[in-house]
Write a structure and sequence with these properties.
There is one protein chain. By secondary structure, the protein is α+β, with helices and mostly antiparallel strands. 31% of the residues lie in helices and 13% in strands. It contains 16 helices and 15 strands. The N and C termini lie far apart (61 Å).
Length: 456
């Protein structure tokens, strides 16, 4: 294996890569966090002004020169162009399919649309003024929104470059699929969460993961010398990005190739199990573990264990590195209603039309949450009382709500008490969720409260 001791300087990268400023390709799911505070203060085009169809991105045969988006120069993921790209990722990068199968037809949802939802009001964080649910959709650059109540669709809308047959990048929401697959394998006895990673992936014997337990990886309480601070040109995330890009490496590049080789270079910093630290490489490590114990990629596992079994409408797909390894931390893409089906499967504690697809114990383990004390050490000041378990975000609120979350506004938000599943795709110009949480989380609670009252 080629070793990378993080000696490849940022200046050398920038001189040699041509298009490898396309580190956006691999870290698109967490990009722009480097200037999150600055981004908060910038003035961006509104959702209406940045509508990708109105702006004409990639329209025509061929598109005009000034409307073309490219992988090689990173333009495909710069705002406002990203509003087009998130709904067309397969146009720009290599992918691997997640098949829905060919034997069973899609299982349609029943509809009970509720027009009152648009007029619901809430008060955003750090504000004294009410906002309507409908107004919040544009504020958060929503591309698609779906709300299920008791298994029926009560709200469904599409915007920007997304329609009902389209697929959208889910960013780091991908991690919750990876975590769920890992938890399923543990419940089936194929994986022991108390064993160390090295017992499953001996290739990681010289890395920080060697003496971490599978549980610590699943809950991201590993102690890694790994930074995702994009304002730091020497942060490890840049090396991770270059390793994972499917584009050609510079001629003098001598670092790791692919996600797996990069994981072997990650070193330890502190003691495992002491604090929550959100780091994408944990999801890639878990993806490698699940593949080792099953002999299948995460794309195959997701297809066989879930996607083929609950009447999905469409195939999904993952972006991959140059070796064809799926990005288990941020590369999944799917349709809105299919994410709704997955969310409803989780809400029903893994049972789908009488068949137990996911062991109930897995869902109960997710819902119990992780350590709030360890989570509090992570610095998520706006998410007080939250925790993290099996790569799901647990609110620990009165409704027991929990969520899968991805940057730029992706979410599956499940409120068991309200019997609600909410799925949102978005393309907010600021990657970090703090930019939309102030509007989103209180809005979700307003809908949940309304649905609870409607059911009483």
């Amino acid at each position: 294996m080629k070793r990378n001791n993080h000696s490849l300087s940022f200046s050398r990268i920038s001189k040699n890569i041509l298009g490898l400023t396309t580190v956006f390709l691999i870290v698109f799911f967490i990009a722009m966090n480097s200037s999150a505070q600055d981004n908060q203060e910038k003035q961006y085009l509104s959702a209406g002004e940045s509508d990708p169809i109105e702006m004409g991105w990639m329209q025509g045969f061929p598109p005009p020169e000034d409307k073309r988006l490219k992988l090689a120069d990173g333009s495909f993921f710069e705002f406002p162009a990203l509003r087009y790209s998130v709904a067309h990722m397969r146009q720009f990068m290599p992918t691997v399919n997640v098949s829905r199968g060919i034997e069973n037809p899609p299982i349609p949802f029943k509809y009970k649309l509720d027009e009152n939802i648009d007029t619901l009001t809430f008060v955003p964080w750090d504000s004294d003024e009410e906002m309507t649910w409908e107004a919040s959709l544009g504020k958060n650059y929503t591309d698609g929104i779906l709300i299920l109540h008791q298994g029926k669709i009560v709200y469904e809308k599409y915007f920007a470059a997304l329609n009902e047959v389209g697929k959208h990048a889910v960013m780091s929401l991908t991690k919750s699929f990876t975590g769920t697959l890992g938890a399923m394998l543990a419940a089936e006895g194929l994986l022991d969460e108390n064993k160390t990673v090295i017992e499953y992936v001996p290739e990681l014997k010289d890395s920080a993961f060697a003496d971490a337990t599978v549980r610590q990886v699943m809950d991201m309480t590993t102690a890694l010398n790994y930074s995702e601070d994009y304002s730091d040109p020497n942060a490890e995330v840049w090396q991770y990005a270059i390793a994972g890009t499917p584009l050609p490496k510079p001629k003098d590049y001598d670092g790791p190739v692919g996600y797996y080789e990069y994981l072997q270079t990650v070193q330890k910093n502190g003691e495992h199990g002491e604090a929550f630290g959100y780091k994408t490489v944990n999801a890639d490590a878990l993806g490698w573990i699940t593949s080792k114990v099953t002999g299948k990629s995460v794309a195959q596992l997701l297809s066989e264990k879930i996607w083929q079994r609950i009447g999905m409408e469409q195939d999904g797909y993952y972006s991959v590195d140059e070796l064809g390894t799926p990005s288990a931390g941020g590369g999944f893409n799917a349709g809105l209603r299919d994410l709704g089906r997955f969310g409803e499967l989780i809400r029903r504690k893994g049972n789908w039309q009488g068949e137990q697809i996911i062991p109930q114990s897995v869902i109960e383990d997710i819902q119990q949450g992780g350590s709030q004390e360890k989570f509090a050490k992570s610095g998520y000041d706006k998410l007080k009382g939250w925790s993290y378990r099996d790569m799901w975000w647990i609110t620990n609120n009165e409704d027991g709500a929990f969520a899968a979350r991805g940057i730029h506004g992706q979410t599956i938000y499940i409120d068991p008490k309200a019997e609600m599943v909410l799925v949102r795709f978005a393309s907010h110009p600021v990657a970090a969720n703090f930019a939309n949480d102030r509007y989103s989380l209180p809005a979700y609670q307003a809908v949940a409260d309304y649905l609870k009252e409607r059911s009483s």
